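lol ok so funny story. i was supposed to be doing the assay writeup but got distracted and ended up predicting the structure for this chain instead. priorities right. anyway since i did it might as well share w the group, maybe its usefull for someone
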Amino acid sequence: MSVQHALLPDGRLHLQHGPIDLVIGADGPAREVRLAYSQASEAFEGLLAALVLELPILRAPIGEALPALAHPAARRMAAAVHPFRGLYVTPMAAVAGSVADHVLAALTQGRALDKAYVNDGGDIAFHLTPGACFRAGVVSDLRDPVLSGLAEIPYESPVRGIATSGRDGRSFSLGIADSVTVLAATAAQADAAATLIGNAVDLPGHPAIRRAPARSIDPDSDLGSLSVTLKVGALSESEIETALESGLDRAQALREAGHISAAMLSLRARVRLCGAPHIPEMLETP
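and the output, tada:
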């Protein structure tokens, strides 16, 4: 399957190859945007093949030492999860965010752009200049992605990445969150943190939660024999609160350690926020 390039009617660039599907936008002089798109396209060529070559390492749990990886996007993946090596986590937890960061770096290199972003299936890396801000829709349930809020990030914020994870997302989850959205310094960091916070929104051993070993569903899963969530049945109000509090504890720990700026956790239409007072634009109702 070859790389697909398309300029969308609204002027954004669409790049797709296998499971990687990017929508790229840039604001600035027409010549700068054109050159930026060309740079992004060049960086995208061969990216999937390069990551596939390193999959055995990328699917292995991160250890004390950073693994030797050849491609910059692969190195971003490992670096993003390395701070969490005390938990079971592999570099694959940051793959979408790392790809977004990698392509954004190529997009903006040497270019005079007012604002730019790379959206990799909802995990977004963005570039801002003074006076600019980035706005992104936030959903509280990945099964029913209705806009429930608006994250608005000004240039002055350290946030340059946003990612969403949950049990009905693109990859398996160990937890039961409908969605977890994280704002962090990079998309790779946000991606890894959203995965780990989503895993923590859980009720271990609950009879209404159906699970199965990851490899029984996907033999190539980086989660191996770990039990991933397949279905969540009826939960009481107190059980929903308990699960959310567990996830919120992890989110607060990650924020206190400087790994994230804010997070929104959702389960069965109940929402918890972490760090929102420091980013008051995070959940403005549209």
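Residues 4-278 form a domain with the T-fold fold (CATH 3.10.520.10). Residues 277-286 have pLDDT under 50 and may be disordered.
back to the writeup now i swear
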